Amino acid sequence: MDLRRLLFVTTITTALTALVGVITATSGAGLTCEARWPLCDGAVFGLFPANFMSFIEWSHRLVAMITGFLIIGSTIAAWRGSHPRRVRFATLAALVITPVQIIFGAFTVLVHELVFGYSIVVLTLHFAFAATILGLLVAATVWAYAETGAVSLDRVQQAGGFALLGYPVMVALTPRLFVTFGEVAQFIYYGLGFAIFAALVAVALWGRELSARGVSIAGGIAALAVVAQLIIARQAFGSRGQLLILALSFAAFGLTLGAVSRSRSLDSGSAHAVASE
């Protein structure tokens, strides 16, 4: 498997790990391994789960372990070959942050109450580090494929268009606004949110590659807005939280629309210039 494909698989697995983590918390399975970490509550010295709920938590740890090995493999592959410096350092940064992410994952099990409340700081940092690792791997993947010339304004518009189509669904699933924010709703909400975040990171980086500064800045800020609403959605219980999430959704939508519109303007301008030659 070449580096580009390895990075793509690693990125997808990282997003899956974060999504399984959300489902684990939503289902209430986060502490079902008898608050043991990294072991569980079943057979063979607690290595395996004893019931279905602990199986959910155990599965999250298993997927996270596989993802960790993939990140290690991606970093080694990036540094062993003659790959771009930015790809190597993006994978290295993801690798360095991964142990910190693991520590905070352990804290969500081992630490139940903090001065600031019921593990709210730990949970927030745990999610924020996961989003950072995902963003770094998306960047490494985008840059690796950029070496093959797979960068164009059309791709910017496709990624931005996907994000624009996803925003209405996320607004409809805003926690406790129209629907009960149960397991299915959260699975769709966060799965789509991670996909939109990845698409916007690609928009920002592709915009930079094409010297479209406005597109790059708009895409980057929109990506941060999406991550912010995903973090807040795990803690929003009142109307203020809902309003903040909606505000971030509409801000991200506006920024994405601006990035797509700008890329189309640049695309048509380039086509006009070529036609007039």
Gist of the model:
The chain has helices at 3-26, 43-46, 52-80, 85-110, 120-146, 153-172, 183-209, 213-233, 239-276.
Tell me what the structure shows.
- The chain has 277 residues and is an all-alpha fold.
- Helix content is 78%, strand content 0%.
- The chain contains 9 helices and no strands.
- It has helices spanning 3-26, 43-46, 52-80, 85-110, 120-146, 153-172, 183-209, 213-233, 239-276.
- Helix 8 runs antiparallel to helix 9 (239-276).
- The model is unreliable at 113-118 and 271-277 (pLDDT under 50).
List keywords for this structure.
single chain; 277 residues; mainly alpha; 9 helices; 0% strand; flat
